[in-house]
Design goal:
- The structure holds two protein chains of two kinds.
- Chain A has a single domain, classed as PDZ domain (Pdz3 Domain, Roll), CATH 2.30.42.
- Chain A is built from three helices and eight strands; from the N terminus they run E-E-E-E-E-H-E-E-H-E-H.
- The mean pLDDT of chain A is 87.
- Among the domains of chain B are: 150 residues, no CATH class; 79 residues; 105 residues, no CATH class.
- Chain B is extended.
- The interface between A and B is medium-sized, with 19 and 8 residues.
- Chain B: Pfam families: Strabismus.
- Chain B: Keywords: Cell membrane, Membrane, Transmembrane, Transmembrane helix.
- Chain B: Its main location: membrane.
Amino acid sequence: MSNFIPGQPLVAVVQRIEIKKLRQGDNLILGFSIGGGIDQDPGQNPFSDDKADKGIYVTRITPGGPAETADLRMGDKIMQVNGYDMTMMTHDQARKRLTKKNEDVVRLLVTRKSLEEAVKNSMGGYQRQ
Amino acid sequence: MDTESTYSGYSYYSGRSRGSHRHGERSRDRDRHKSRNKDSRSEKSVTINSPPAEPLLGDSSVRGGEQVQDDNWGETTTAVTGTSEHSLSQEDIVRITKDLEDSVGLDCRRYFTLTLAVVMGLLVFLTPVAFLVLPHLLWPEKLQSCGTACEGLFISVAFKLLILLLAVWALFFRSPRAGLPRVFVFRALLAVLVLLFVMSYWLFYGVRILDTQDDNYQGIVQYAVSLVDALLFIHYLAIVLLELRQLQPCFSVCVMRSTDGEKRHYNLGQLSIQRAALAVLEHYYCDFPVHNPALLSASKSRAAKHLAGLKVYNVDGEFPAALAEGPGNNAAAGMAHSQSRAMIAAAARRRDTSHNELYYEDAEHERRVRKRKARLVVAVEEAFTHIKRMQEEEQKKTPVDVMDSREAAQAIFPSMARALQKYLRTTKQQHCHSMESIQQHLAFCITNNMTPKAFLESYLSAGPTLQYSRSHWLARQWTLISDASVTSGLSDGCVFQLKCVDFSLVVTTKKIPYIQMSEEYIDPKSHKFVLRLQSETSV
């Protein structure tokens, strides 16, 4: 979520989240909604710091769903899904990656602002020592 | 230098201060229009107060108030009193008596300039003919006979003279629109130019041809042709100077009426101040709503109340140098600075509720006007249903009592007269419309198949001054008040005033800025658009 420079490697503090898909009828659901994508309008994203960020964000979490139990939070930016990079994906491609029928579990790498701050605080404390 | 030129009633007619060149504006370099309509708007030099307006439903026997179509107004009219809204002040009386004295002198001067112009025109026209004819009269035996080319030139001279005559008729044979205070500079210049030109030609002719009795007739004919050509070119110059130069708009003038602040903007070209004033006045009669003094009485009464509220007395016994007044005098007329400040402070402290009264009065008046208007509209619509246009075939079939439009108007008028009169009284327009004029307008609307709404439109809102009867074209005599000379051109920031008896028009000029335009080309294929989406999918 820190300011990215196009063409340069992106550095972010991420958290690993593993979500087990829940079977509901014929579908396997994860229990959250995504927004964003390189074909979408980044200016309308309420969760991003940089309004030019076209990444995939978690916009809603169904209460009691598998995502909530896995500690996914609203506003998270999804960086990787099962090893595949999600920072330069169209919205539809992202949806497909998450809803593959032959996968039961998705392992996400997500980043959020509070992670950065936590790291900064801990590092700052370490440096003061 | 600052010259204030005022064109007022008496100074215009006084022969003392201005020379005969003053009316040089009327001298045109060609023949003039001989029959001038003296009743035209611009010719009336004195308009005395309007005759008393006919009361709507009053005694129709009193019809003598119509303005006399007078050719001998100088002898018969003195003053008109009665229910007119103007009062005759001492100034007006003085002005009227002076006009009576000077009117005879004015007519003589106008006819003098007219005859002068006619004589000059004839002289100029007959000069080529004289050039051609004189050799035949004076030395016919010595003259070479006119060959073919020379006779061809006769035709050319004849047709060019004819064209010149038509062109002069088109440009100059027009009744004058107005009497301007100073000479029309371009016309005077053109007249002088033509005179000089013709004089020089005569001089040359006299010295080189008459004295030496030149026998080369073809050369003489060519000389006459060159004269006519040059006259045509001078006419071209006249068109450019008098007509074309002021067409391109250069200045934007703002005209504001002093009584009620009505404002209009016009675009004018490069004109002298007096011609610009004339253009402004012509627009005034068409665009500005008619001046209604009855609408100003409310604010005047409020102002009077403010003044009457406080009186300032100088009780300290000092004798200020500016005022030669003793203690205890009412200094309201010539207040010193400190006294006016004291008055303003006192007025601010006083609990003034006049704004409250104004607000409620306005609301009440609005309500009353709307109520009267509703009644009026209903009455007129009902009255119009009583009339039906009768077709030709029907007329032959059923021989009922048929009326023409005037009688039809008179038949339906009484049913709406009362509502209309009340409405006009509420909106203070009753003096603008007489019963006769309303009936005429009604007959006009009936003839032209107008709806009741179309008939009412001219009473619901005040129209331009031209719409009303001639008695309401009140001030046909205007005074031009200007710092700069009235024959100088308009310039940026120039201000002048046009005063008439009741009000004045203040005219400010602004130069239209120079506009720099640049070009940008946009390829029609370059109009491309994308959708701005923000979709949310649940997984």
